């Protein structure tokens, strides 16, 4: 009847989407307008990669990686690009084959903390994506990445989210309960970050799986309070909050508030008209709606049903 709503994507999808966001911020290489041939080659390689022209991208990365004139930073980026192609290209992605490429890169990055954290995270991804997944190994690698990444880095928040998704790999209530505990431990590290709303959406997904409706309501409310830019996601979160409060928690005042928020903030929503009618009914003390199945015995509806 209820579904946790974290933005219409699963834990694995969160990993991929957030990686793209952080990757763009961290690794975009601007073209040099012909002043630096190797820099232009790298830029073109990442551009081809973004267009999923993997053969073209690999050729460009290979040229840079094998150039005698490339800097160490350029070589590392080119090798990283080639590892990404093995890891992510569709069709033909091969996390198992990407593992030794990342491990070799890890030996070459030396003191570069951001690089080390990024590669540790990608290694963890690989161990999570192989069959069967090596969940504990992935968690250990994510933890190492969190340890070395600079505080305040978006990559740090993204890696902590990836770590939490490991608790959703298997539909095991004990494992997911542990994930919810881990999320509370990390909660303060997401405050004020661009990832706060997604973090609480992930908590909501965990709470839903173990049928903890109090935690689910709190997590969805925190997701809403931290800002949801996607209108359809906001609509779903507010509607689920209203229904949870009404049907699972019997908190009719809060249910009315969420219905009114939905009507006020998304008036064009398909659910807005019902939300407005239901909020008015609850305000009048009418627990059993004229527009939905009854939720209490008629005798207990203090407005007479």
Return residue spans where pLDDT drops below 50 for at least 5 consecutive residues. 1-12, 31-35, 299-305
Mean pLDDT rating: 87
Q: In what range is the share of β-strand residues?
A: under 5%
Largest sheet, in brief, is: none
Radius of gyration: 24 Å
Classify the helix fraction into a percent range.
Answer: 55-70%
Number of helices: 14
| H and E order | HHHHHHHHHHHHHH
Assign the structural class, choosing from mainly alpha, mainly beta, alpha/beta, alpha+beta, or little secondary structure: mainly alpha
Q: Can you tell me the overall shape?
A: elongated
Query: How many beta-strand elements?
Result: 0
Distance between the termini: 24 Å
What does this entry look like structurally?
The chain is mostly helical and 305 residues long. The chain is built from 14 helices and no strands. The protein has helices at 11-27, 37-50, 54-65, 72-88, 95-108, 113-129, 135-148, 154-165, 173-186, 196-209, 213-225, 231-248, 252-265, 272-283. Helix 2 (37-50) runs antiparallel to helix 3. The two termini are 24 Å apart.
């Amino acid at each position: 009847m209820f579904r946790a709503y974290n933005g219409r994507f699963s834990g694995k999808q969160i990993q991929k989407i957030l990686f793209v966001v952080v990757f763009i911020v961290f690794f975009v290489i601007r073209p040099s307008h012909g002043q630096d041939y190797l820099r232009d080659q790298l830029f073109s390689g990442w551009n081809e990669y973004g267009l999923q022209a993997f053969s073209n991208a690999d050729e460009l990365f290979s040229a840079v990686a094998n150039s005698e004139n490339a800097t160490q930073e350029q070589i590392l980026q080119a090798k990283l690009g080639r590892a990404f192609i093995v890891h992510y290209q569709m069709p033909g992605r091969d996390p198992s084959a990407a593992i030794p490429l990342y491990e070799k890169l890890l030996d070459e990055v030396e003191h570069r903390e951001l690089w080390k954290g990024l590669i540790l995270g990608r290694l963890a991804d690989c161990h999570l994506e192989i069959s069967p997944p090596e969940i504990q190994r992935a968690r250990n690698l994510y933890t190492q990445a969190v340890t070395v990444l600079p505080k305040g880095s978006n990559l740090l928040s993204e890696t902590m989210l990836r770590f939490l998704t490991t608790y959703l790999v298997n539909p095991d209530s004990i494992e997911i309960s542990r994930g919810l505990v881990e999320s509370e431990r990390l909660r303060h590290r997401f405050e004020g970050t661009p990832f706060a709303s997604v973090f609480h959406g992930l908590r909501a997904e965990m709470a839903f799986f173990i049928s903890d409706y109090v935690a689910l309501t709190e997590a969805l409310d925190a997701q809403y309070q931290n800002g949801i830019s996607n209108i359809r996601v906001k609509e779903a979160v507010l509607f689920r909050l209203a229904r949870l409060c009404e049907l699972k928690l019997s908190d009719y005042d809060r249910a009315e508030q969420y219905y009114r928020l939905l009507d006020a903030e998304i008036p064009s929503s398909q659910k807005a008209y019902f939300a407005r009618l239901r909020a008015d009914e609850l305000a009048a003390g009418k627990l059993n709606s004229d527009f939905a199945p009854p939720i209490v015995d008629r005798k207990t509806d203090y407005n007479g049903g």
